[in-house]
Specification:
The complex is a heterodimer of chains A (about 270) and B (about 425). By secondary structure, chain A is of the alpha/beta class. In chain A, about 40% of the residues lie in helices and about 20% in strands. Chain A has 10 helices and 9 strands. Chain B is built from 17 helices and 8 strands. Classes of the chains: A alpha/beta (about 270), B alpha/beta (about 425). Chain B: One of its GO terms (molecular function) is iron-sulfur cluster binding. Chain B: This is (R)-2-hydroxyacyl-CoA dehydratase.
Chain lengths: ~270, ~425
């Protein structure tokens, strides 16, 4: 491997995602890890994993762009170069050119981003200072039900009679879950209600126009949410191949285009 | 592609003069209270200050005090004190922080101005509900607590066009305040003095308007964040020669900057209109956030709230009534939309930021679809940020930052 590569790092509140792209714009390496408490260390570990997958080393990195909450905490990216909404839009536009409504469900944030026919952002909305409808909400509910997070998708699929949660608040929804347990409701029906709550909270943020794309770790790990969304909006939902990587791919695309703040290679090499 | 840089807004030289004037005001107020040499009135910010001043009262503005609590980032610790005696965390955080400060026996004035131990004790509390009902409840608590008379004006709301009937109503209410105030002051109202004060308020307001309008220049020599500080004299010294003199000095400085194209935000690329209250506890970070993105918040509804074109010395009470009714916050949504559309044209705005303040619905214009309607009319993109004037528990810095950065990137893409 002698050709240069371009790196996008999306340091989210919950997960760190890294995408490595070649000069032709193909995704040739990626990694996802819990962001944890040391963003720099996690990003560095993700970078090494994704470069290895790409058959590259740090010396091949031509440019890197960081985005997400923790982007300022990554020691080898000295410039804060791109807001996450821009990267998300760029990543989705790469896979689905043209007008889009993007629904991104992250660990802490939900977003609806609209792109016009030229792929430019026409508007965006983020959730208020509230965890309702986010990945953090699902984690909280899994804890209440004492089930592993990764089992929720299959449980929701098995539901025969959904339990609806009425509260806007994550903590009060937890109380409603406990109440459902007391009334002998099936866990699978409660989980489906939890999923329904997530989608409802997101859809009430903004109207949807044009084709709809879903991204983020929550849908990547819970494809049942996508089916549920399609049923609710009565339209097909598009998914990138790696929905959790959309922002990181967008950041890598900015790096490849050379539009974002370039990271000098020596800074990348200094990281041990 | 912009790189984020830390840029403070350019310093305004007149600030030191303003600081002296404000210090004199607070020390004079303290003296009046401590020595019982003059009666003290507490007044809402757009209450009948002209009348009080003409009758010789020293005037304290609790809203100004509350803004100081917010700007010094002390309010969030004080609000729970008011919550604990029954005032909801969801109501005006100016109210709850000011009551909280009283309950804790605290004032930032003591630290800022040596010699002042407490806010001046009132002899009368005078409100105008033109801004909200909260001010009346706020003053009512002090009236009960301190055993002080509470009087005021109940203003019409959602006014589309200000009619004769509206003006007549408020004029009559103002007239009804006079005998009560004369009783407390121990002297009759001197009409000639009232005319003088109204004339000074008129001069003050005209100069303040000119100050704000220097920001119609490209690049703008002034920011919204400067405005929130420099409106101090227009709030607490309306009707005095000091305020008029100050704005002459400030205006001269800004005109000079305008002439030499000296930008308040270096490399100004984008011009934003700010609707709603400032987030007092985040003035500096917000100023730096926008400046770092080569963006100037050049105009706002908030700072323009101290422009009162109706003041007329020949008809003092009637013109005061009209001035207090023409305020943006008193008006209907239809009026507000027209006003905002005009302002965005006048200041050559690229986008609008609406601050949805959790505890101030009256100053939050993003809740009934106005941003969407205005975007459809003007084509200007908008952003709504959640926050609050004083309660920093309602503010998420990271979300604000992400939103603002993404919004400026959107403007960049749209150019």
């Amino acid at each position: 491997m002698s050709k240069p590569v371009f790196v996008g790092l999306d340091i989210g509140a919950s997960r760190t995602k890294v995408a490595v792209m070649d000069v032709d714009g193909a995704l040739i390496g990626y990694a996802v890890k819990k962001s944890g408490t040391d963003f720099g260390r996690t990003a560095s570990a993700c970078l090494d994993i994704s470069l290895k997958m790409a058959g590259a080393t740090r010396s091949h990195v031509e440019r890197a762009v960081a985005t997400g909450y923790g982007r300022a905490n990554v020691p080898f990216v000295t410039k804060t170069s791109k807001a996450e909404i821009g990267c998300l839009a760029r990543g989705c536009s790469h896979y689905f050119p043209g007008a889009l409504s993007i629904i991104d469900i992250g660990g802490q944030d939900n977003k609806i981003v609209k792109l016009d026919a030229a792929g430019r952002r026409s508007s965006f909305k983020m959730n208020r200072k509230c965890a309702a409808g986010t990945g953090a909400f699902l984690e909280e509910m899994a804890g209440r039900l004492d089930i592993p997070l990764e089992e929720m998708n299959d449980l929701a699929r098995q539901s025969e009679e959904m339990v609806k949660l009425g509260s806007y608040c994550t903590v009060f929804s937890g109380t409603e879950v406990l109440e459902s347990i007391r009334h002998g409701k099936k866990v699978s029906d409660i989980v489906k209600g939890i999923f329904y709550s997530v989608i409802k909270r997101v859809l009430e943020m903004d109207s949807l126009t044009d084709r709809v794309v879903m991204t983020g770790g929550v849908v990547a790990h819970n494809p049942y949410l996508v089916r549920m969304t399609e049923e609710l909006i009565g339209r097909e939902v598009l998914l990138p191949k790696l929905p959790q990587l959309a922002g990181a791919v967008g950041a890598a695309l900015y790096a490849r285009a050379g539009e974002a703040a370039a990271v000098p290679q020596p800074l990348l090499r200094r990281v041990k | 592609m912009k790189e984020e840089t830390k840029l403070a807004r350019k310093k305004i030289e007149a600030t030191s003069l303003m600081n002296r004037i404000m210090a004199d005001y607070f020390l004079d107020l303290n003296q009046a209270s401590a020595s019982n040499s003059r009666k003290v009135a507490w007044c809402t910010s757009v209450g009948p200050a002209e009348l009080l001043r003409a009758m010789g009262f020293a005037v304290h503005f609790p809203e100004n005090h509350a803004a100081m609590l917010g700007a010094t980032r002390l309010a969030t610790d004080l609000i729970p004190e008011a919550n604990a005696i029954g005032y909801s965390p969801d109501i005006c955080s100016y109210l709850t922080s000011d009551l909280g400060a009283y309950l804790k026996g605290f004032t930032p004035l003591a630290k800022a101005y040596p010699g002042i131990a407490a806010v001046p004790k009132p002899d009368v509390l005078v409100y105008n509900t033109n801004q909200c009902r909260d001010v009346q409840d706020w003053f009512a608590w002090y009236a009960r607590e301190l055993g002080v008379p509470l009087i005021g004006i109940t203003s019409p709301k959602n006014v589309n066009e200000v009619t004769e009937a509206h003006v007549e109503d408020v004029t009559r209410q103002l007239e009804a305040l006079v005998p009560v105030l004369e009783g407390i002051a121990g002297a009759p109202l001197d009409l000639a003095r009232l005319k003088e004060v109204v004339a000074l308020s008129r001069d003050c307001t005209e100069l303040w308007k000119e100050v704000l309008e220097t920001a119609t220049a490209v690049p703008a020599p002034l920011t919204f964040f400067d405005g929130t500080i420099h409106m101090g004299p227009a709030v607490v010294l309306r009707g005095t020669p000091q305020a008029v003199e100050y704005y002459r000095v400030l205006l001269a400085e800004l005109e000079q900057r305008k002439a030499t194209r000296e930008a308040a935000v270096a490399g100004e690329e984008y011009r934003i209109y700010w609707d709603g209250m400032p987030v007092w506890g985040r003035l500096r970070p917000h100023s730096e956030l926008f400046a770092g993105l080569k963006t100037n918040v050049v105009a706002s509804t908030y700072c323009s709230s101290w422009i009162f074109p109706a003041f007329d010395a020949e008809e003092p009470l009637r013109s005061m009534a009209k001035a207090y009714l023409e305020l943006f916050i008193v008006r209907s949504d239809a009026y507000k939309e027209r006003y905002l559309a005009d302002m965005t044209k006048k200041f050559r705005i690229d986008g609008i930021v609406y601050h949805d303040a959790k505890t101030c619905p009256y100053n939050s214009n993003s809740r009934y679809g106005m941003p969407q309607r205005l975007e459809a009319e003007t084509g200007l993109p908008y952003l709504v940020i959640s926050g609050d004037l004083n309660d920093m528990r309602c503010v998420s810095d990271e979300q604000t930052k992400t939103n603002v950065e993404a919004f400026i990137e959107q403007l960049e893409e749209g150019k």
